[in-house]
Design a protein that fits this description.
The structure holds two protein chains of two kinds. By secondary structure, chain A is of the alpha+beta class. Chain A is built from five helices and three strands; from the N terminus they run H-E-E-H-H-H-H-E. The chains are: A alpha+beta, B mainly beta.
Chain lengths: 141, 127
């Protein structure tokens, strides 16, 4: 089996990038003064997720979080998984790229994470450092 | 996909070891527009970007680096009429698969701003 990086190189050479129609809005409860962050899926990564046979299982990334620095990691050598839908790919990306204390461990009353269509993200960046997840209308404010 | 297993590469006059090519290649890179709803323009080995606020972003890798002693390198421009030479970008290696990017107004201020073009890369050993 090839290394993950070799599969990524191969995928980039043969797959057209896919711009996702989704973004993930989230707040970090450990940084209450920080503005809401916006996660943007990479188009080449999304193409690989939709094609299948390239990305490793998400649980390999979760286990690798606990691997000490410099020790061998599991995800580059894991057997790749099959094709995902765009929605499944976004859920995978949340677990991979957003800290677990936001998507898994948070028990508060505020809604701190939303998957939203890209058109709901403000393109006007006025007051960017004061953005919060809107609690009433389920969109960015 | 097939594998070419060689020790050296030559153009007929100059010969270099393949280890120079492998070790000297960027293992991840990204070119993105940091204004508006930020957009990735091209990349390699990047799974997502996070827009954390004005001039502050994170780049996350699909295949992480082996250890946190890799090199993260970047640049960019604002694409306006101001003196871009005074602007600077800082990259911080937060984890083996995560680089934080801060785009500043100038070298004498902590004030950040959104840049039209931001370029990042990572060199070192892959996990």
């Amino acid at each position: 089996m090839t290394h993950l990086w070799e599969r990524l190189l191969d995928a980039k050479s043969r797959l057209a990038p896919v711009q996702s129609k989704y973004r993930v809005l989230f707040e970090d409860p450990s940084q209450p003064d920080a503005p809401a962050a916006v996660l943007v899926p990479d188009p080449n990564w999304m193409a690989a997720a939709l094609a299948g046979g390239i990305l490793p299982p998400i649980d390999t990334y979760l286990r690798d979080r606990d691997v000490p620095d410099g020790q061998p990691k599991e995800h580059p050598y894991a057997e790749p998984i099959g094709a995902m839908t765009e929605e499944e790919a976004i859920e995978y990306l949340i677990m991979k790229d957003i800290p677990p204390h936001i998507w898994r461990d948070y028990n508060g009353n505020r809604s701190i994470m939303r998957i939203v269509p890209v058109e709901l993200i403000p393109s006007d960046r006025s007051f960017r450092n004061a953005w919060k997840v809107n609690q009433e209308t389920e969109m960015a404010a | 996909m097939s594998t070419l297993n060689v020790s050296n590469i030559t153009d007929g006059t100059t010969t270099v070891g393949t280890s120079y090519v492998v070790n000297g290649s960027a293992k991840a890179w990204c070119n993105f527009n940091g204004t508006g709803t930020i957009a990735i323009q091209d990349s390699l080995n990047v799974s997502s970007l996070t827009d954390d606020g004005t001039g502050t972003y994170q780049s996350l890798m699909t295949n992480s680096m082996a250890a946190a002693n890799y090199v993260a390198f970047g640049g960019g421009d604002v694409n306006n009429a101001n003196n871009d030479l005074r602007r600077n970008v800082r990259l911080f290696r937060i984890e083996t698969g995560l680089v934080k990017i801060a785009c500043g107004i100038n070298a004498n201020s902590d004030t950040k701003e959104d840049w039209t073009n931001v370029y990042t890369s990572a060199f070192g050993d892959l996990a």
